[in-house]
Structure formats: structure tokens, C-alpha cells
Amino acid sequence: MRHGKKFNHLGRTASHRKAMLQNMANSLIEHKRISTTVAKAKALKKFVEPILTKAKNDSQHSRRVVFSYLQNKQTVSELFNRVADRIANRPGGYTRIIKTGNRLGDNADMCIIELVDYNENLLAPVTEKKAKTRRSRRGGKSASNETTATEAVDESSTQEEGTDTTEKNKDE
């Protein structure tokens, strides 16, 4: 019976599930973003967020605890040296799951799980685009104001010419 057992077993034995989550956590810390199924991403989020919280305190004990979960020296050093600096001020919620649709082979729900502080597209400051101005052939700002009436006349004449060519094509 599964009374009170809330975590997803992912259809794997305990040792296989532990190894899979360990490998996925190593890949997430190394690459900052991985693509996987939604169920695995949710399980990975529960697995990796306490590890990231532990990494905020850089001590011998916390390094050993994190190493017991990840079993990879390079990943642990990357986590404590680079990642912990970026997440130091964040009180939690270190990962983001973005759903990307369904996989072609088996129609599984796919997603991208990423570290929040490493998405450059979302962290970039929003810059307002300049309003596009209409350019004239004559030059300065005062010339553009005077030519607006003549441009309107020119546009109407080009539209009439365009209608003449379409009428000729219909006759042929």
C-alpha cells in the first residue's frame, strides 16, 4: 500500500531513481538548463532545491553533505563557487519549469527546467524602442513638416498608377 507516500516513484526502483536524479542534478548545475519530461522535472526540483539551499552556506560540512548527494567533485565546486554567489540573496525558488509541448515519439509532456538566475533573456533590462519616424528626402525636421502634404499627393498618384496596371492585366 502507498498510504502517505506522496513523491513520484517515476516507475523505477529506489536505486535507479536516486541515480537518475543525481545525474540530472549534476547536468542542471553544469549546464544551467536541461530538457526533460514534466514528471522528472518536478521530482528533480524537489531533489535539487534543498541542495542549492545548502550551497549558500560555504562550509566544510555543507560541502560534504552536498557531495553525498551529487557524487561529483567538479559539480560541487561549480555549485559552491559560481552558482551559490548568484542565488545568495534569493530565499528559495531556485529553479523554473517551462513547459514546451509534447514529445513526438510517445506524446510525453516535455519541459525545460532551468536555474532562475541564469536566464539572460529574462534578466536583461527592458529597453523601450524608439518611435519610428518618417524620413523624407529633403533633410531636416522643418523640411519634413512641409513635405507631408506633397508626400500625400505623391502617394495618391502612385496608388492610381497601381490601379492602372492591374486593370491592364485584367484586360490581357
Automatic annotation (TrEMBL):
GO terms for cellular component: cytosolic large ribosomal subunit. Residues 142-151 have a biased composition (Polar residues). Residues 128-172 are annotated as: Disordered. Pfam families: Ribosomal_L17 (PF01196). One of its GO terms (molecular function) is structural constituent of ribosome. Keywords: Ribonucleoprotein, Ribosomal protein. GO terms for biological process: translation. It comes from the Bacteria. Residues 131-140 have a biased composition (Basic residues). Residues 152-164 have a biased composition (Acidic residues). Belongs to the bacterial ribosomal protein bL17 family. Part of the 50S ribosomal subunit. Contacts protein L32. This is Large ribosomal subunit protein bL17. It comes from Rapidithrix thailandica. The gene is rplQ.
